[in-house]
Amino acid sequence: MAGEFALIDRYFARPTPSAVLGPGDDCALVQPTPGKQLAVTTDMLVAGTHFLPDTNPRNLGWKALAVNLSDLAAMGAMARWVTLAGALPAADAAWIEGFADGFFACAKEYGVDVIGGDTTRGPLNLCVTALGEVEAGRALRRDGARPGDQVWVSGRPGLAALGLAQLQGRVSLPEPWPRLCIAALEKPRPRLALGQALVGLASAAIDVSDGLLADLGHIAERSACAAAVRLVQLPQLRDLVGSGERYDADLRRLALDCQLAGGDDYELCFTVPAARSPEVAALAAALELPLWPIGEIVAGTPGTVEVFDPDGQPVDIARRGYDHFA
Predict the structure, then answer these.
(1) Distance from CA of residue 211 to its chain's centroid?
(2) Are 185 and 164 in contact (CB under 8 A)?
(3) 237 SS3 class
């Protein structure tokens, strides 16, 4: 296998028409659009922590970029440029080619240029920095929610965590759910169009990476409010239920845990003043994307998220999301 720089030239050096200067120098040069602010995010994916070591490399390439673009979506930004750094245990040509194909497929899908990065030998670890643009002073943030705002979430949170449970052998989902859930886990769709459409409409937003309750808690904490989630308003996963009373109960319990605390969804959770909820419904139709009102922002201890059953009674949910150091 060729050395480091030949590897980069072969698999990762692509045209960067939106950059003043792309890969090849010590730094890339980019020119932000006048009147726009830069939104910058960095995410790391570590084998065995963020993905299974035997994950298809093409899917991993897609996901490594998609999870960063999801952060830009949560800020209402337009994705522009990314850098990629990776530690690889070996220069496996077939693996690298598959990973690069997936990474650049995602970049093409969402219109971003890969403007630089780095490679080194070591345990498999991927680190992407993404840069986007948003109108000055218009970025979606976590600190704008107010009591009375509705809480919304996009898509169907919980599918990715169910896909992981399927791959780990903790559940055997009935068809066609294994394929759908594993696809949600391995090839998430960053909601960039939704994020940009929410600018000027949403009061706060976050992407769901660590778990719906945990991430909604970040909005509540930064906004100095609390939140209430109504189980009856969550997207229903009743189609997952198989035959047999015990199986139904076990699967329902797992599905609810995945919805509330599973993470890895990369859907957007956002808040909107109640009077503007019809605009969100219209947006769902325009984007052909399910958007669900799952609760509301309330006065209370900052960061607190309470869950209520269909009868309005509080439900004790022990697990709220993922924490690397908990």
Answers:
(1) 10
(2) yes
(3) coil
